[in-house]
């Protein structure tokens, strides 16, 4: 697994768009092997039969299956160190792509990188600690700029959700770098695409929900919390995502993080939006926003 990641990392570290594209596909292929069930009934002699069986059997593994899968446990283990951490390498790739110019070549690569980063943060929740740093949070907010195409903005919102999910410290970082101003400005802008506006609205609902830390002293906790996290990720992604229920975790210097109540966050959001009370009312009246109870 390390050798496969090494080749992919070498390619995405390039400034050649062709090599970056190849590296992203290599990493995607590795994550797919970790997350997808493999075909057991493919016939090497019948091409048509092989294709059909592949489509039927290459489905996401169930959460319980993923926890006990040797390949996933090995992937989770090597994510603990900086050398093989996928999220950190993808962040560096985003920084490089944003500085390369030539949008016709880089925009699709940025979308692909964000898509993989979204999956990496769900697969390995401790990697979210990277977004406790302002420089990385600002990177996501820069991608929400009005000058970027809707596909980049939409995917950046999904990554932002994954970065903040059950991580109050990251939410405080987001607030500290004027993240609320960035998101609400995008939501209110007349030039914002309908799909992007909908995702920013969903983000605001997400932001107002009760904060539940998933990381305690650097360890991933609670199958129930993880199942709720998976459903939230699915609600934003529009397709299945799977992630860890492993008891292991990345060693993180986790200081006690202040959590804020819905009322406190309502007041903060009220600086930028006039209809926050309506959003809160929607949350209170919904038994299961995003298909998940507030706990």
UniProtKB/TrEMBL annotation:
Cross-referenced InterPro entries: Cell_div_Cdc14
Start-end of Low complexity biased regions: 50-61
Highest taxon, organism lineage: Eukaryota
Pfam family, one: CDC14
Regions annotated as coiled coil: none
TM ranges: none
Location of region: Disordered: 38-65
Protein name per UniProt: Cell division control protein 14
Organism annotation: Extremus antarcticus
